[in-house]
Amino acid sequence: MKNLLKRKIERLYKMDRESDRYRICLNDGVEFMANDRREKHCCPECADEYNNEKKRLAKLELQQTILDTENALSENIEQINNEEKNLKILDKLQLKELGSTYNMDYLHSIGFDFFSFNGKGPLFNIEPQLNCHFIQIGSYRIYRVEFSQVLIKKII
Ligand SMILES: [Zn+2]
């Protein structure tokens, strides 16, 4: 940012871009010769402004991190709630010993969420490159057996 408040600092050195005292102000890009080799800003106002801006950005970044963490937590909570809801639905189904098939639309209609599960595993009877999995919710395993049909089996 262009600093309009800046004081004229008496510079002891003549402008020389080859010199190791040559600087470009980090705040407003003004060229200057450093009186003190540690100088990085053309004037104290620029130093203040630059450091305040840095603090402001750090604070913003921290706030964003906090926000991201809160969002991740509430997503986790939602996920856990959905898994519990799924489990309640599964507990009510009358499953046969070897599992029962259900229509996915029907399960959707009673509130089942196919994206909320606590585990998944590969299917061994299908080519691995097809990347097919069953999902697991509690002690239930759910296999997609047809386009809109799943087989639900209670293990253990
Ligand atoms: Zn400056």
Summarize the structure.
This protein is an alpha+beta fold and 156 residues long.
Report what the structure shows.
By secondary structure, the protein is of the alpha+beta class. The chain has two domains: 1-92; 94-154, no CATH class. 35% of the residues lie in helices and 21% in strands. The protein contains two helices and seven strands. The protein has helices spanning 44-92, 104-109, and strands at residues 22-24, 31-33, 100-103, 119-122, 133-137, 140-146, 149-154. A five-stranded antiparallel beta sheet has the order 3-7-6-5-4. A two-stranded antiparallel ribbon has the order 1-2. The protein is rod-shaped. Zinc ion binds at residues 3, 25, 27-28, 30, 41-43, 46.
Descriptive keywords:
single chain; 156 residues; alpha+beta; 5-stranded antiparallel sheet; two-stranded antiparallel ribbon; 21% strand; rod-shaped; binds zinc ion
Classify the secondary structure makeup into a structural class. alpha+beta
How much of the residues is beta strand, in percent? 15-25%
Domains (count): 2
User: Distance between the terminal alpha carbons, to the nearest Å?
Assistant: 67 Å
> Which strand order does the major sheet show?
3-7-6-5-4
Can you tell me the overall shape?
Answer: rod-shaped
Radius of gyration: 32 Å
Bound molecule kinds, no repeats: zinc ion
Task: Summarize the amount of helix as a percent range.
Answer: 25-40%
Topology pattern, helix = H, strand = E: EEHEHEEEE
Low-confidence stretches: none
The largest pleated sheet is described as: 5 strands, antiparallel
Count of extended strands: 7
